[in-house]
Amino acid sequence: MKEYLNRSLTYSDYLELLDRLLDENKTTGNDHSGAMVGYGRLNRARMRRLDNTIEIDTRVRDSVAQLDVDWMWLVITEGWCGDAAQNIPVIEKVAAANPGIETRYILRDENPALMDQFLTNGARSIPKLIAIDRKSGRVLGTWGPRPSAAQQLFDEQKSAGTNKPLLMENLQRWYHRDRGRSLQAELADLCAWWAQANYALAA
Predict the structure, then answer these.
(1) Other CB atoms closer than 10 Å to residue 83's CB: what's the count?
(2) Whether the model pTM is above 0.90
């Protein structure tokens, strides 16, 4: 894990990478087709909007801020991923509530061995947040690739045979209505659980 952390990016470095690639009509990964670059541009615009508009619930901020932690949140992502674009700005805002939480970003397709340690139902689904205690190096837990209500919507529509473009549209509509509230609540609950589990292991 230390090797992956050493090659990971800060949030600002990750955004700079996305912008540089888009200036070159590229996105992250190996597929630089017009469609994938288009997804990258759309998702970068979403991230800008969310970075400027997402507000963290006071109860979430207070609950995360009170924790005595020294954590690294390593997020596996890609620039073309719609779920990553919707969730990463929220992850950043929640992490910012506590100076003991640092975020880092790493690309899925460049690090398959890491990704394969954190599959979701056998799939390389992203984003995937890995919570790591910096002092011990322990992995405390993970979150991802989307809030539970969004995952339920995805699973139900996929099982019903909804075509992928419509499924993705419906998922983005869900994100627009939710405005990051579900993820905030899930991360607050996970932070409390991870902190308690870490205290118990350290005792």
Answers:
(1) 24
(2) yes
